[in-house]
Design a protein that fits this description.
The structure holds 2 protein chains of 2 kinds. By secondary structure, chain A is α/β, with parallel strands linked by helices. Chain A has 9 helices and 12 strands. The longest helix of chain B is centred in the N-terminal third of the chain and has 17 residues. Chain B is globular and about 70 Å long. Chain B has one domain. Classes of the chains: A alpha/beta, B alpha/beta.
Chain lengths: ~250, ~425
């Protein structure tokens, strides 16, 4: 599904700040991969580089989604190819209604793929249904995108967007940050409901706790811009018990 | 080196006399002739504006006071009807500044009293004599508005509307350009009697150079909604003045959409004279390239417990210029005033600029007044978030522009009218990304 080879990236405005230093990763359809790592290891940069945010320059390596090179695509084209990033800090957009935003996004993607736009009635029905399963109040749909939402509401809204857009490859960037246990469970349930044999997940997290609720198939440890260790779910537990220091020391 | 004041004054006087010389006042009956004569004297005393005047610093009035109106072509749009077309209204059409009865609806259908200025002025007495030129004259202090006085003196057409109850339909003033090049002048008077309610719409390219005055008196408990769209003549020069006096528990809501135009100066002068009055003056302007959109607003609170809002949003690109000069004056008796003023611009490039002069002058001690003015660009974080969800950049920008303008459009009470204005804005943006 997602294949990353020898990816190198640095800050656009400061070539001395190299963040990704030869990252290799392969996420298969139907699998959940987790990336764990200490702060500053480059986890969020990876998410941004894959989704096409300005400010980073890829100097070497490649990233493909179902065989298509995504690094040269505009962010919206990546999205229509099925890439989705759930933001660590979902952006508040005052004045743009959550429903309007979602309908625009759904229809833009359908249009780009050559499908007909979804009818207003079908869209409403769909969004209400999905919102209900995420315990999102109808009132939250009427408000401006993420504006005035609590931390938990923002993250649930990200999952709602994901559910509506039905991406092939989902990247979740620190989705557990700022959530209490109940909110985290709700978000995890939403993600688990989307697990299908043809969809891949990359869950980026600092702590193991999210992985109790979203069970990964593969766990990677990232440090200094590279994957330094890959294993099964037990690797996450090891981090939980011993911290990163042991693991990092072991590799060094 | 500064030019001595006396010399400046003399040269202004000379230019003004020259401008007035040879201009004939429209023929009329006693009341109109008296009002026009006084207005001519006001122009002579005030003198024409120049860029040296305090309130013309940002907008050069030279093209407004030039002997000849510069040419201005029309912008033909084939794929979009005119604004307000879907609204059930009484259409009053002016072609080149002259009322065209044949092209208009029967004015009586509006359920209000409507007289053409050109007719009423011929009578020796008319209710409008208590307002025509009277509110304009009152609005000459503390800020001078000589172009409004000029309009009072020489405008020979317009409508005089008196609403005595709730109007059955909105009165829609439609301006069209015919064969005549150059200037057009219109002067309207609107009197909303106690408890009455009226909606007035205005749209259409009136002239290469257009001067318009609207004098409004909203009596106790009256309500006036005014929605105006200026567009489809990218090269126009227009100067408009709204003078409005509001009584107790009355409401005035005036919204203006300005799309392009070489120079558009919209002035609003509002007096809140009775308790619990409300005045909302708002506008959205969209300028691309050779554009100057100037909103100059002066709201005076004379009575307690009144509310005023000034909400202006300007989208500027390609070197366009936006101007806002807004003032809230709260006189000593006007305790518990609630005054709000916001002017904001969204700049698409470094060549475009927004010039703002927000002013508060408060003599009452128990009031709530806030004002703010900002200039900004589209937030890259907003844009990226939208694009990452699959919304193409141009569409994302349009959504963000509409969001930026939303607060101004929300000032329009009627949702159908607001939706119509939103649709105009969307099309304006679409045309710019094709």
């Amino acid at each position: 599904m997602l294949e990353i080879n020898n990816l190198h990236a640095q800050l656009e405005e400061d070539a001395d700040v190299k963040i990704l230093k030869g990252l290799d990763l392969k996420v298969e359809a139907g699998k959940v991969h987790a990336i764990m790592g200490p702060n500053g290891s480059g986890k969020s940069t990876l998410a941004y580089v894959l989704s096409g945010r300005d400010g980073y320059e890829v100097t070497e390596g490649s990233a493909t989604l179902e065989g298509n090179d995504i690094l040269d695509m505009e962010p919206e084209v990546r999205a229509t190819h099925g890439l989705f990033l759930a933001f660590q800090y979902p952006v508040e957009i005052p004045g743009v209604g959550n429903m309007t935003f979602l309908r625009e996004a759904v229809n833009a993607q359908r249009k780009a793929r050559g499908d007909d736009e979804i009818s207003s009635a079908d869209f409403l029905k769909l969004v209400r249904e999905k919102a209900k399963s995420l315990k999102i109040e109808p009132e939250m749909l009427k408000r401006a995108v993420n504006t005035g939402f609590s931390g938990g509401e923002k993250k649930r809204n990200e999952i709602l967007h994901m559910a509506m857009l039905e991406p092939k490859m989902c990247i979740l960037d620190e989705t557990d940050s700022g959530l209490d246990v109940d909110a985290m469970k709700l978000v995890a349930e939403g993600v688990n409901a989307l697990r299908t044999p043809d969809r891949g997940f990359l869950v980026i997290t600092h702590y193991q706790r999210l992985l109790n609720h979203i069970k990964p198939d593969v766990v990677h440890i990232m440090s200094d811009g590279r994957i330094i260790k890959t294993g099964g779910p037990e690797l996450a537990l090891e981090v939980e018990e011993n911290g990163y220091a042991d693991l990092l020391g072991e590799v060094a | 080196m500064a030019i001595p004041k006396a010399k400046l004054r003399a040269s202004k006087q000379e230019a003004t006399n020259e401008w007035l010389a040879g201009r004939a006042m429209p023929a009329g009956g006693a009341w109109a002739t008296a009002a026009r004569k006084e207005a001519v004297e006001r122009v002579r005393a005030l003198t024409l504006p120049t860029k040296r005047d305090e309130y013309w610093k940002y907008t050069d009035p030279t093209s407004l006071t030039a002997a000849e109106a510069p040419e201005a072509s029309l912008f033909e749009i084939t794929d979009e009807g005119a604004v307000f077309e879907q609204i059930d209204r009484v259409r009053l059409v002016f072609v080149d500044g002259v009322f065209d009865a044949a092209a208009s609806d029967d004015p009586s259908l509006a359920g209000v009293e409507i007289t053409r200025l050109a007719e009423a002025a011929g009578n020796d007495i008319h209710w409008a004599k208590d307002y025509y030129g009277v509110l304009e004259a009152a609005g000459q202090s503390p800020v001078e508005r000589p172009l409004a006085a000029f309009n009072t003196a020489f405008a020979d057409d317009g409508v005089l509307i008196r609403a005595t109850g709730k109007a059955e339909k909105p009165v829609s003033l439609i301006y069209e350009r015919g064969e005549k090049a150059g200037d057009a002048m219109l002067h309207h008077v609107i009197r909303v009697e106690p408890g009455a309610e009226l909606t007035v719409l205005e749209n259409g390219p009136a002239a290469a150079r257009f001067s318009q005055v609207m004098e409004v008196d909203v009596a106790d408990g009256g309500r006036l909604h005014h929605v105006r769209a200026q567009g489809r003549d990218h090269e126009r020069r227009a100067v408009t003045h709204l003078f409005a006096r509001l009584g107790e528990e009355s409401t005035l809501k005036s919204f203006t959409l300005v799309a392009n135009g070489r120079l558009t100066r919209n002035e609003a002068v509002v007096w809140l004279q009775g308790e619990n009055g409300a005045a909302h003056i708002s506008g959205a302007s969209m300028g691309d390239g050779e554009f100057l959109g100037d909103d100059t607003v002066f709201v005076t609170h004379s009575a307690p417990h009144c509310e005023s809002r000034q909400v202006f949003k300007k989208v500027l690109r390609g070197g366009a210029v936006g101007v806002f000069q807004g003032k809230i004056l709260v006189e000593q008796p006007a305790q518990k005033t609630d005054g709000y003023q916001i002017s904001q611009s969204l700049l698409f490039d470094e060549r475009s600029q927004f010039l703002a002069k927000p002013e508060l002058e408060i003599y009452a001690d128990d009031v709530q007044c806030s004002h703010g003015s900002t200039s900004g660009e589209i937030d890259p974080d907003h844009l990226f978030y939208m694009r990452a969800r699959g919304i193409p950049q141009a569409e994302a920008e349009s959504l963000l522009v509409l969001a930026f303008i939303a607060e101004a459009i929300e000032e329009i009470e009627d949702e159908t009218l607001a939706e119509d204005i939103r649709a105009r804005l969307s099309r304006w943006l679409e045309r710019r990304r094709a």
